[in-house]
Amino acid sequence: xxxxxxxFNGLGNRGWIGGLYYLKNIIFSCLQSEKICERFxxxxxxxPEHADIFECFRQGAGSGHTYAPGGTVDIRVIAEKNKWKLAxxxxxxxxxxxxxxxxxxxxxxxxxxxxxxxxxxxxxFQHKTLPEFFSEEELRQKDANxxxxxxxxxxxxxSSRDAQHDLERFFPGHKCRAKVVHFVSYIxxxxxxxxxxxxxxxxxxxxxRRKYIYLPNQFWQHKNHIVAVRAIELLRGRGALAxxxxxxxxxxxxxxxxxxxxxxxxxxxxxxxxxxxxxxxFVKRTEQLCIMKNAxxxxxxxLCEGWGTVLEDAKVLDKTVLLSDIPVHxxxxxxxxxxxxxxxxxxxxxxxxxxxxxxxxxxxxxGIAAMYREARSYAQALEELFL
Length: 387
Fold this sequence. Notes:
The chain has 2 domains: 4-185 and 370-386, Glycogen Phosphorylase B (Rossmann fold), CATH 3.40.50; 188-363, Glycogen Phosphorylase B (Rossmann fold, 3-Layer(aba) Sandwich). It is α/β, with parallel strands linked by helices and 387 residues long. The protein is globular, with a radius of gyration of 21 Å. It has helices at residues 17-30, 34-39, 51-54, 83-96, 109-113, 126-129, 136-150, 161-170, 188-193, 196-206, 225-237, 258-268, 271-274, 285-293, 309-316, 327-332, 345-356, 364-386, and strands spanning 4-9, 40-46, 73-77, 99-103, 118-122, 155-158, 177-180, 211-215, 244-248, 277-279, 298-300, 321-324, 337-340. The model is unreliable at 60-66 (pLDDT under 50). The longest helix is centred in the last third of the chain and has 23 residues, at 364-386. The strands form 3 sheets. Strands 3-2-1-4-5-6-7 form a 7-stranded parallel beta sheet, sandwiched between helices. It has a 3-stranded parallel beta sheet with strand order 8-9-10, with no helix packed on it.
């Protein structure tokens, strides 16, 4: 029997690279299901500059992979920029080449043409829970988009039970068939490629010679860096942790809230803390994993997440994480996570100081094994979605 196709559309994600990593992680879970692999071929559309994200799925790529027998991924790299030609390409693929499902379908003009095959995805309801971080125009656009998706009878994938709770709270009359599908962070190929020489090169390139605590998030206001830098202020004011650095990656910008970024910069550049704060800017994915691997521990102070990739990365590396006490984090955490009040810098300062005095055993191989176990478990939810 000829296999039907599941189409993962990775085109047009220039503004949010996290969406592409989400697709990669869902594809990985699909490949852990023998039932899905027996019945479907996975097709990924992506642009040349993002093709490397999915390269690990090419047949024979890397080693140590335990995909289900018969699982295949057809990676189609599309250089075409004309939106109408892209639309024609997608319509031809969907209507003539056996595509049964379009995953993470957007309800744009093209998407409406084949919405019967569409599976929608909402990562979180941040614009509802934290509306003060958005402009009026963005709030209107997001409301219209979410209403369009939730008013259809299509499947709607949510990344957490917390998001499902928000769906019921904010769209109580929805007609969509909501399904919670967690995901793991599939970073095994990148981790297997890391060598001691590579780690040393990263340390040398970024001048990471002292012990450091790592904050990996982008600087969006909801990521709540402000509580972390206030905690650092308090620690330095007490003369504590003089031998530690605090390492931040990501571009120091938030187009929605430039005033917030200005305030954050002012604190981070103050003489009391500037000597221990290391702003590395945007780094490559492998560099980020090297930095995370060699950190003393991770601080994740976010006010809102759908299902945080940073935390999933840290779980695979078996790192200790100081984690903001919000509902989705209570759902997602493991035994190496320590919760704190994300609005209390003094409590975070105390926790950082206390944690710096401990020695944690890290077992990356155990983290990778747990990643596979969880992916196989999450694949069962995908089976219910596709089969």
